[in-house]
From TrEMBL:
It holds the Pfam family PfkB. This is Tagatose-6-phosphate kinase. Pathway: Carbohydrate metabolism; D-tagatose 6-phosphate degradation; D-glyceraldehyde 3-phosphate and glycerone phosphate from D-tagatose 6-phosphate: step 1/2. PANTHER family: 1-PHOSPHOFRUCTOKINASE, 1-PHOSPHOFRUCTOKINASE-RELATED. It comes from Lactobacillus porci. The gene is pfkB. GO terms for molecular function: 1-phosphofructokinase activity; ATP binding; tagatose-6-phosphate kinase activity. Keywords: ATP-binding, Kinase, Lactose metabolism, Nucleotide-binding, Transferase. The keyword rRNA processing does not apply. Residues 16-280 form the Carbohydrate kinase PfkB domain. SUPFAM superfamilies: Ribokinase-like.
Protein backbone atom coordinates (compact mmCIF):
# COMPACT_ATOMS: atom_id res chain seq x y z
CA UNK A 1 0.00 0.00 0.00
CA UNK A 2 1.08 3.58 -0.61
CA UNK A 3 0.15 6.10 2.09
CA UNK A 4 0.29 9.82 1.40
CA UNK A 5 0.68 12.20 4.34
CA UNK A 6 -0.71 15.74 4.24
CA UNK A 7 -0.50 17.11 7.76
CA UNK A 8 -1.67 20.56 6.68
CA UNK A 9 -4.20 20.03 3.86
CA UNK A 10 -6.31 22.89 2.52
CA UNK A 11 -9.38 23.80 0.62
CA UNK A 12 -7.88 25.71 -2.29
CA UNK A 13 -10.14 28.68 -3.11
CA UNK A 14 -9.34 29.36 -6.76
CA UNK A 15 -10.43 32.76 -8.10
CA UNK A 16 -10.34 33.48 -11.83
CA UNK A 17 -10.22 37.11 -12.95
CA UNK A 18 -8.66 38.98 -15.79
CA UNK A 19 -6.65 41.41 -13.76
CA UNK A 20 -6.07 42.29 -10.11
CA UNK A 21 -5.92 46.01 -9.34
CA UNK A 22 -4.20 46.50 -5.99
CA UNK A 23 -6.17 48.55 -3.49
CA UNK A 24 -9.46 48.22 -5.44
CA UNK A 25 -12.50 45.96 -5.24
CA UNK A 26 -11.84 43.24 -7.79
CA UNK A 27 -14.53 40.81 -8.97
CA UNK A 28 -13.82 37.29 -10.07
CA UNK A 29 -15.52 35.65 -13.06
CA UNK A 30 -15.32 32.13 -11.62
CA UNK A 31 -14.49 30.51 -8.28
CA UNK A 32 -13.93 26.94 -7.09
CA UNK A 33 -13.17 25.19 -3.82
CA UNK A 34 -10.79 22.30 -4.48
CA UNK A 35 -9.42 19.73 -2.03
CA UNK A 36 -5.74 20.63 -1.85
CA UNK A 37 -2.49 19.90 -0.14
CA UNK A 38 0.57 18.27 -1.63
CA UNK A 39 0.03 14.72 -0.32
CA UNK A 40 -3.59 14.82 -1.46
CA UNK A 41 -2.40 15.81 -4.94
CA UNK A 42 -0.11 12.76 -4.90
CA UNK A 43 -3.13 10.59 -3.96
CA UNK A 44 -5.15 12.09 -6.82
CA UNK A 45 -2.52 11.14 -9.39
CA UNK A 46 -2.05 7.66 -7.87
CA UNK A 47 -5.81 7.14 -8.23
CA UNK A 48 -5.65 8.22 -11.86
CA UNK A 49 -2.86 5.69 -12.42
CA UNK A 50 -4.97 2.99 -10.74
CA UNK A 51 -2.49 2.56 -7.85
CA UNK A 52 -4.17 1.80 -4.53
CA UNK A 53 -3.37 4.34 -1.82
CA UNK A 54 -4.68 5.90 1.37
CA UNK A 55 -4.41 9.58 2.30
CA UNK A 56 -3.41 10.30 5.90
CA UNK A 57 -3.21 13.62 7.76
CA UNK A 58 -5.34 15.91 9.91
CA UNK A 59 -8.69 17.51 9.02
CA UNK A 60 -11.19 19.51 11.02
CA UNK A 61 -14.13 21.91 10.91
CA UNK A 62 -16.47 22.70 8.01
CA UNK A 63 -13.57 22.99 5.59
CA UNK A 64 -12.29 19.57 6.65
CA UNK A 65 -15.78 18.11 6.05
CA UNK A 66 -15.85 19.57 2.52
CA UNK A 67 -12.35 18.27 1.86
CA UNK A 68 -13.33 14.73 2.86
CA UNK A 69 -16.56 15.01 0.83
CA UNK A 70 -14.52 15.87 -2.27
CA UNK A 71 -12.09 13.01 -1.65
CA UNK A 72 -15.02 10.61 -1.35
CA UNK A 73 -16.51 11.90 -4.63
CA UNK A 74 -13.13 11.27 -6.28
CA UNK A 75 -12.98 7.83 -4.64
CA UNK A 76 -9.72 8.65 -2.85
CA UNK A 77 -9.35 6.40 0.20
CA UNK A 78 -8.54 8.40 3.30
CA UNK A 79 -8.08 7.89 7.01
CA UNK A 80 -7.50 11.38 8.40
CA UNK A 81 -7.28 12.15 12.12
CA UNK A 82 -10.18 14.49 13.01
CA UNK A 83 -9.02 17.61 14.84
CA UNK A 84 -10.95 20.16 16.84
CA UNK A 85 -9.50 23.15 14.93
CA UNK A 86 -10.43 24.04 11.32
CA UNK A 87 -8.59 23.00 8.14
CA UNK A 88 -7.15 26.05 6.36
CA UNK A 89 -8.33 27.74 3.14
CA UNK A 90 -5.56 28.65 0.67
CA UNK A 91 -6.34 31.42 -1.81
CA UNK A 92 -5.15 30.95 -5.40
CA UNK A 93 -5.64 33.99 -7.63
CA UNK A 94 -5.46 33.21 -11.33
CA UNK A 95 -5.29 36.60 -13.03
CA UNK A 96 -2.63 38.24 -15.21
CA UNK A 97 -0.30 36.19 -13.08
CA UNK A 98 -0.80 33.47 -10.46
CA UNK A 99 -0.73 34.64 -6.85
CA UNK A 100 -1.08 32.27 -3.91
CA UNK A 101 -1.84 33.02 -0.29
CA UNK A 102 -1.33 29.90 1.79
CA UNK A 103 -2.69 30.10 5.32
CA UNK A 104 -0.62 28.89 8.29
CA UNK A 105 -3.03 26.12 9.28
CA UNK A 106 -4.79 24.80 12.37
CA UNK A 107 -3.60 23.98 15.87
CA UNK A 108 -3.02 20.27 16.33
CA UNK A 109 -3.08 18.94 19.90
CA UNK A 110 -0.71 16.35 21.41
CA UNK A 111 -3.58 13.87 21.56
CA UNK A 112 -4.28 14.35 17.84
CA UNK A 113 -0.58 13.87 17.05
CA UNK A 114 -0.59 10.62 19.07
CA UNK A 115 -3.63 9.39 17.11
CA UNK A 116 -1.75 10.12 13.89
CA UNK A 117 1.42 8.33 15.00
CA UNK A 118 -0.69 5.28 15.88
CA UNK A 119 -1.57 5.04 12.15
CA UNK A 120 2.06 4.03 11.50
CA UNK A 121 1.43 0.75 13.37
CA UNK A 122 -0.48 -0.42 10.27
CA UNK A 123 2.60 -0.19 8.03
CA UNK A 124 3.93 -3.39 6.45
CA UNK A 125 7.24 -4.19 4.72
CA UNK A 126 7.18 -2.86 1.16
CA UNK A 127 4.65 -0.10 1.87
CA UNK A 128 5.63 3.42 0.78
CA UNK A 129 4.83 6.59 2.74
CA UNK A 130 4.91 9.85 0.75
CA UNK A 131 5.07 12.91 3.02
CA UNK A 132 4.47 16.30 1.38
CA UNK A 133 3.66 19.88 2.15
CA UNK A 134 4.10 22.36 4.94
CA UNK A 135 3.81 21.60 8.64
CA UNK A 136 0.90 22.99 10.61
CA UNK A 137 2.34 25.77 12.83
CA UNK A 138 1.83 23.91 16.11
CA UNK A 139 3.89 20.90 14.99
CA UNK A 140 7.62 20.79 15.80
CA UNK A 141 9.94 21.47 12.87
CA UNK A 142 11.38 17.94 13.16
CA UNK A 143 7.90 16.32 12.96
CA UNK A 144 8.55 14.56 9.64
CA UNK A 145 11.95 13.36 10.78
CA UNK A 146 10.35 11.98 13.96
CA UNK A 147 8.17 9.63 11.83
CA UNK A 148 11.05 8.14 9.87
CA UNK A 149 12.56 5.67 12.41
CA UNK A 150 9.17 3.95 12.84
CA UNK A 151 8.52 3.87 9.10
CA UNK A 152 11.91 2.22 8.50
CA UNK A 153 11.55 -0.21 11.45
CA UNK A 154 8.32 -1.40 9.83
CA UNK A 155 10.26 -2.15 6.62
CA UNK A 156 8.43 0.55 4.67
CA UNK A 157 9.97 3.01 2.18
CA UNK A 158 9.40 6.75 2.38
CA UNK A 159 9.61 9.95 0.36
CA UNK A 160 9.65 13.39 2.02
CA UNK A 161 9.00 16.19 -0.47
CA UNK A 162 10.85 18.99 1.22
CA UNK A 163 13.88 21.19 0.66
CA UNK A 164 16.98 22.57 2.39
CA UNK A 165 18.18 21.34 5.78
CA UNK A 166 14.93 19.44 6.38
CA UNK A 167 15.61 17.37 3.25
CA UNK A 168 19.25 16.74 4.19
CA UNK A 169 18.17 15.47 7.62
CA UNK A 170 16.07 12.71 5.98
CA UNK A 171 18.98 11.25 4.02
CA UNK A 172 20.36 9.07 6.81
CA UNK A 173 17.03 7.17 6.76
CA UNK A 174 17.53 6.35 3.04
CA UNK A 175 14.55 7.91 1.24
CA UNK A 176 13.33 5.95 -1.79
CA UNK A 177 13.68 9.09 -3.89
CA UNK A 178 14.26 12.79 -3.37
CA UNK A 179 13.10 15.29 -5.98
CA UNK A 180 14.73 18.68 -5.71
CA UNK A 181 14.21 20.89 -8.74
CA UNK A 182 17.49 22.17 -10.20
CA UNK A 183 17.30 25.45 -8.24
CA UNK A 184 16.64 23.63 -4.95
CA UNK A 185 19.53 21.24 -5.66
CA UNK A 186 21.93 24.17 -6.20
CA UNK A 187 20.64 25.81 -2.99
CA UNK A 188 21.40 22.62 -1.04
CA UNK A 189 25.07 23.11 -1.95
CA UNK A 190 24.95 26.94 -1.68
CA UNK A 191 26.09 27.20 -5.28
CA UNK A 192 25.00 27.89 -8.86
CA UNK A 193 25.67 25.12 -11.37
CA UNK A 194 27.93 26.08 -14.28
CA UNK A 195 27.18 22.86 -16.20
CA UNK A 196 24.92 19.82 -16.27
CA UNK A 197 27.86 17.78 -15.04
CA UNK A 198 28.14 19.98 -11.91
CA UNK A 199 24.46 19.35 -11.26
CA UNK A 200 24.76 15.58 -11.69
CA UNK A 201 27.83 15.46 -9.42
CA UNK A 202 25.79 17.23 -6.73
CA UNK A 203 23.03 14.62 -7.10
CA UNK A 204 25.62 11.85 -6.70
CA UNK A 205 26.72 13.40 -3.40
CA UNK A 206 23.12 13.06 -2.17
CA UNK A 207 23.22 9.36 -3.12
CA UNK A 208 26.42 9.06 -1.06
CA UNK A 209 24.63 10.71 1.86
CA UNK A 210 21.85 8.11 1.77
CA UNK A 211 19.20 8.82 -0.90
CA UNK A 212 18.31 5.70 -2.93
CA UNK A 213 17.45 7.76 -6.02
CA UNK A 214 17.68 11.46 -6.87
CA UNK A 215 15.27 12.93 -9.41
CA UNK A 216 16.16 16.44 -10.58
CA UNK A 217 13.17 18.20 -12.10
CA UNK A 218 13.66 21.13 -14.44
CA UNK A 219 10.09 22.12 -15.38
CA UNK A 220 9.89 22.64 -19.18
CA UNK A 221 13.50 21.44 -19.54
CA UNK A 222 12.76 17.83 -18.49
CA UNK A 223 14.40 15.84 -15.71
CA UNK A 224 17.30 13.62 -14.68
CA UNK A 225 17.23 10.53 -12.48
CA UNK A 226 20.47 9.60 -10.72
CA UNK A 227 20.53 6.04 -9.35
CA UNK A 228 23.44 4.04 -7.88
CA UNK A 229 23.88 2.31 -11.29
CA UNK A 230 22.88 4.81 -13.96
CA UNK A 231 21.94 8.36 -14.82
CA UNK A 232 18.80 8.75 -16.96
CA UNK A 233 17.44 11.81 -18.77
CA UNK A 234 13.79 12.42 -19.63
CA UNK A 235 12.72 15.08 -22.13
CA UNK A 236 9.84 17.41 -21.27
CA UNK A 237 6.53 16.95 -23.03
CA UNK A 238 5.49 19.69 -25.45
CA UNK A 239 2.48 21.75 -24.49
CA UNK A 240 1.24 25.05 -23.17
CA UNK A 241 1.93 25.41 -19.45
CA UNK A 242 -1.13 26.95 -17.79
CA UNK A 243 -0.51 25.90 -14.19
CA UNK A 244 2.63 26.28 -12.13
CA UNK A 245 1.22 24.36 -9.14
CA UNK A 246 1.37 20.62 -8.56
CA UNK A 247 3.74 19.46 -11.32
CA UNK A 248 6.26 18.35 -8.68
CA UNK A 249 3.62 16.46 -6.65
CA UNK A 250 2.43 14.78 -9.85
CA UNK A 251 5.95 13.77 -10.80
CA UNK A 252 6.56 12.18 -7.39
CA UNK A 253 3.23 10.33 -7.63
CA UNK A 254 4.09 8.99 -11.09
CA UNK A 255 7.51 7.85 -9.94
CA UNK A 256 6.37 6.26 -6.67
CA UNK A 257 3.27 4.59 -8.17
CA UNK A 258 5.35 3.04 -10.96
CA UNK A 259 8.20 2.02 -8.68
CA UNK A 260 5.72 0.42 -6.25
CA UNK A 261 4.31 -1.77 -9.01
CA UNK A 262 7.46 -2.52 -11.05
CA UNK A 263 10.57 -1.55 -9.02
CA UNK A 264 11.75 0.02 -12.30
CA UNK A 265 13.15 3.48 -11.47
CA UNK A 266 13.71 4.55 -15.10
CA UNK A 267 10.08 3.75 -15.91
CA UNK A 268 9.21 5.75 -12.80
CA UNK A 269 11.03 8.74 -14.32
CA UNK A 270 9.09 8.30 -17.59
CA UNK A 271 5.67 8.11 -15.95
CA UNK A 272 6.60 10.81 -13.41
CA UNK A 273 7.63 13.18 -16.23
CA UNK A 274 4.35 12.54 -18.04
CA UNK A 275 2.30 13.19 -14.89
CA UNK A 276 4.26 16.40 -14.15
CA UNK A 277 3.84 17.64 -17.73
CA UNK A 278 0.14 16.74 -17.87
CA UNK A 279 -0.51 18.70 -14.67
CA UNK A 280 1.48 21.70 -15.99
CA UNK A 281 -0.80 21.68 -19.06
CA UNK A 282 -4.08 21.72 -17.09
CA UNK A 283 -5.71 24.08 -14.57
CA UNK A 284 -6.08 21.30 -11.98
CA UNK A 285 -4.21 18.10 -11.18
CA UNK A 286 -4.08 15.99 -14.36
CA UNK A 287 -6.48 13.13 -14.99
CA UNK A 288 -5.68 9.81 -16.69
CA UNK A 289 -6.75 10.85 -20.20
CA UNK A 290 -4.39 13.86 -20.03
CA UNK A 291 -1.51 11.73 -18.72
CA UNK A 292 -2.12 9.18 -21.51
CA UNK A 293 -1.75 11.92 -24.15
CA UNK A 294 1.61 13.06 -22.75
CA UNK A 295 3.16 9.67 -21.91
CA UNK A 296 4.13 8.62 -25.48
CA UNK A 297 6.12 11.88 -25.85
CA UNK A 298 8.51 11.05 -23.01
CA UNK A 299 11.73 9.30 -24.02
CA UNK A 300 14.31 8.06 -21.55
CA UNK A 301 18.03 8.21 -22.45
CA UNK A 302 20.75 6.48 -20.46
CA UNK A 303 23.36 9.18 -19.89
CA UNK A 304 25.79 7.08 -17.88
N1 LIG B 1 6.12 23.46 -18.76
C1 LIG B 1 6.33 22.15 -18.71
N2 LIG B 1 6.42 21.42 -19.86
C2 LIG B 1 6.63 20.09 -19.83
N3 LIG B 1 6.83 19.37 -18.70
C3 LIG B 1 6.76 20.05 -17.52
C4 LIG B 1 6.51 21.46 -17.47
N4 LIG B 1 6.51 21.84 -16.16
C5 LIG B 1 6.74 20.71 -15.45
N5 LIG B 1 6.90 19.63 -16.26
C6 LIG B 1 7.22 18.26 -15.87
O1 LIG B 1 6.98 18.12 -14.46
C7 LIG B 1 8.23 17.90 -13.76
C8 LIG B 1 8.18 18.61 -12.42
O2 LIG B 1 8.07 20.01 -12.64
P1 LIG B 1 8.93 21.09 -11.86
O3 LIG B 1 10.36 20.93 -12.17
O4 LIG B 1 8.30 22.42 -12.17
O5 LIG B 1 8.69 20.64 -10.36
P2 LIG B 1 8.55 21.55 -9.07
O6 LIG B 1 9.54 22.67 -9.12
O7 LIG B 1 8.56 20.65 -7.90
O8 LIG B 1 7.09 22.11 -9.35
P3 LIG B 1 5.88 22.60 -8.47
O9 LIG B 1 6.48 23.50 -7.43
O10 LIG B 1 5.01 23.25 -9.49
O11 LIG B 1 5.19 21.41 -7.91
C9 LIG B 1 9.31 18.39 -14.73
O12 LIG B 1 10.57 17.75 -14.51
C10 LIG B 1 8.71 17.99 -16.08
O13 LIG B 1 8.89 16.61 -16.32
O1 LIG C 1 1.48 25.34 2.13
P1 LIG C 1 2.02 24.08 1.50
O2 LIG C 1 1.63 22.84 2.27
O3 LIG C 1 3.47 24.14 1.17
O4 LIG C 1 1.33 23.94 0.06
C1 LIG C 1 -0.07 23.79 -0.03
C2 LIG C 1 -0.48 23.90 -1.48
O5 LIG C 1 -0.11 25.16 -2.05
O6 LIG C 1 0.16 22.88 -2.21
C3 LIG C 1 -0.70 22.37 -3.22
C4 LIG C 1 -0.04 22.49 -4.57
O7 LIG C 1 1.17 21.83 -4.64
C5 LIG C 1 -2.01 23.14 -3.08
O8 LIG C 1 -3.09 22.29 -3.31
C6 LIG C 1 -1.97 23.67 -1.67
O9 LIG C 1 -2.74 24.82 -1.45
Amino acid sequence: MIYTVTVNPALDYVLQLEKVNDGETNRSSDTQFLAGGKGINVSQILNQLGVENTAWGFVGGFTGEELIRQLNVKQINSDFVRISDTTRVNVKIHAQQETEINAAGPKITDQEVAAFKARLDDLKPGDVVVISGSLAPSLPTDFYESLLPTIREKGAEFVVDTTGEALLRTLKFHPLVIKPNHHELADLFHTEFKSTNDMLQAAKKLLDQGAQNVMISMAGEGAYLVTPDHIYHANAAKGVAVNSVGAGDSMIAGFVGTWFETHDAAEGLRVGSACGGATAFTEDIAVKSQIDVVLPQIKIDVVE
